[in-house]
């Protein structure tokens, strides 16, 4: 199982540490060729406008959208969620999201750096409810989701962890929390994707 971390911009080192602790083979993704070799992709926090422009200059935008549409598991955190969203309420005119996650999101929806906060979250992982400390740093706020989106955790009624088929996204930074339950969930998504691909190849052969 090879999990890529988009490394064009942003804080990807903590994600790499968590995934390596879980036993994943992790590779940094900066080119379409590197993207083609991974079984899942993490889009970390950072600056969403810059990240969006770098997806274009690196040639990654089109192949990434194609792979997500084909079932590649993707996990976006903070700015990564903004990049995945279908609509950015207060985005810049030159900011183009990937439009693979049916949500409306507001950048810095909880305020600026001084308004960053931590709170206890209770996350529905599918098999159990896990508690973890959620770290919100200049976090986006999800203002609405479509019926296709499953809400896995909330803060005062706001969705903060969501899933739409093969896309998982968090407004907070689970890589900075006190347990690895969200990354475990994503690793399970990647493992299932790998099993499905293997079974399909066996049928074709």
Structure overview:
With 205 residues, this protein is α/β, with parallel strands linked by helices. It has a single domain, classed as Rossmann fold (3-Layer(aba) Sandwich). The chain is 30% helix and 32% strand. The protein has 6 helices and 12 strands. The protein has a 7-stranded mixed β-sheet. Helix 1 links the parallel strand 1 and strand 2 (25-29). The longest helix has 24 residues, at 181-204. The two termini are 21 Å apart. The relative contact order is 0.17.
What's the short version?
With 205 residues, the chain is of the alpha/beta class. It is 30% helix and 32% strand.
Topology, pairings included?
Blueprint: E1 2-6, H1 13-21, E2 25-29, H2 32-35, E3 40-43, H3 48-57, H4 61-69, E4 74-77, H5 79-84, E5 85-88, E6 101-106, E7 117-124, E8 129-136, E9 141-145, E10 150-155, E11 158-164, E12 167-170, H6 181-204
Parallel strand pairs: 1-2, 1-3, 3-4, 4-12, 5-6
Antiparallel strand pairs: 6-9, 7-8, 10-11, 11-12
């Amino acid at each position: 199982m090879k999990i890529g971390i988009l490394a064009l911009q942003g804080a990807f080192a903590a994600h790499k540490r968590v995934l390596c602790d879980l036993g994943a083979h992790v590779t940094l993704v900066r080119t379409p060729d590197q993207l083609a070799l991974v079984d899942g992709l993490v889009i970390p926090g950072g600056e969403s406008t810059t990240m969006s422009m770098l997806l274009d200059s690196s040639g990654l935008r089109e192949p990434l959208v194609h792979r997500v549409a084909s079932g590649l598991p993707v996990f976006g955190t903070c700015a990564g969620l903004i990049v995945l969203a279908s609509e950015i309420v207060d985005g810049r005119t030159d900011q183009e999201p990937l439009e693979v996650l049916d949500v409306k999101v507001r950048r810095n929806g909880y305020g600026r750096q001084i308004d960053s906060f931590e709170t206890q979250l209770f996350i529905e992982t599918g098999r159990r409810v896990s508690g973890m400390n959620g770290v919100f740093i200049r976090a986006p706020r999800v203002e609405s989701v479509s019926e296709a989106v499953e809400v896995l955790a909330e803060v005062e009624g706001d969705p903060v962890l969501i899933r739409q088929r093969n896309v998982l996204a968090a407004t907070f930074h689970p890589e900075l929390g006190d347990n690895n339950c969200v990354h475990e969930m994503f690793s399970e998504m990647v493992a299932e994707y790998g099993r499905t691909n293997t079974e399909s190849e066996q049928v074709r052969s």
